[in-house]
């Protein structure tokens, strides 16, 4: 009796490892391309930097937003975590908590200008990003409320003022002029803090 042997399939584990390797290559390439060329950089450049075809990129990340979310997932979570940590710190020292949070935001933007662009252009309809933004917004409101009640900041300070600071920092980092971007951003943050400092500090 004749039997036909099936050709052994590639081990499932090896396929998963290979797929994850390509995914990580795409994420690393995207982070680098976004850092130098911004969030609107051609995705073909990302695929080329990762050493894969554009079809491979789209199979793993069907849209630009999906790729952006995957690249910045950890930073978005860190951003929200920092805001929540500042709220806890504000119970004991509201001014230090607020000032530290401002410097945290500025530092994250200087380290990765593309992340600053993400903060200014949240993805619509994304459970991941909308959840992180909602956490950060709630925490920021509580932080400012505590700082206002303690007299640590001006009574008319709002969370939208921090958005204006993020926008100004993004522009400054993009075109720092004769001053280094990190030094210019730190200086602007200090001027902002001096402007919103309350009477009790």
From TrEMBL:
Protein known as: TetR/AcrR family transcriptional regulator
SUPFAM superfamilies: Homeodomain-like, Tetracyclin repressor-like, C-terminal domain
Keyword DNA-binding: yes
Domain of life, per lineage: Bacteria
Keyword Cell wall biogenesis/degradation on entry: no
PANTHER family named among the record's database cross-references: HTH-TYPE TRANSCRIPTIONAL REGULATOR BETI, HTH-TYPE TRANSCRIPTIONAL REGULATOR RUTR
Keywords: DNA-binding, Transcription, Transcription regulation
Alphabetized Gene3D superfamilies for the sequence: Tetracycline Repressor, domain 2
GO molecular function, one term: DNA-binding transcription factor activity
DNA-binding region: 42-61
Domain HTH tetR-type: 20-79
């Amino acid at each position: 009796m004749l039997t036909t042997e099936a050709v052994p399939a590639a081990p499932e584990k090896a396929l998963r490892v290979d797929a994850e390797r390509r995914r990580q290559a795409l994420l690393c390439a995207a982070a680098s391309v976004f850092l130098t060329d911004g969030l609107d950089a051609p995705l073909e450049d990302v695929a080329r930097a990762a050493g894969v075809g554009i079809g491979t990129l789209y199979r793993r990340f069907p849209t630009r937003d999906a790729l952006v979310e995957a690249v910045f997932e950890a930073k978005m979570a860190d951003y929200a975590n920092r805001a929540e940590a500042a709220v806890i710190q504000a119970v004991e020292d509201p001014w230090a908590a607020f000032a530290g949070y401002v410097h945290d935001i500025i530092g994250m933007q200087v380290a990765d200008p593309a992340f600053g662009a993400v903060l200014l252009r949240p993805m619509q309809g994304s459970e991941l990003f909308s959840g992180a933004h909602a956490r950060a917004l709630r925490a920021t409101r509580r932080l400012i409320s505590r700082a206002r009640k303690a007299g640590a900041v001006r009574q008319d300070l709002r969370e939208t003022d921090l958005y204006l600071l993020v926008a100004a920092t993004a522009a400054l980092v993009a075109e720092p002029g004769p001053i280094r971007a990190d030094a210019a951003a730190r200086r602007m943050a200090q001027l902002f803090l001096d402007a919103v400092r309350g009477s009790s500090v």
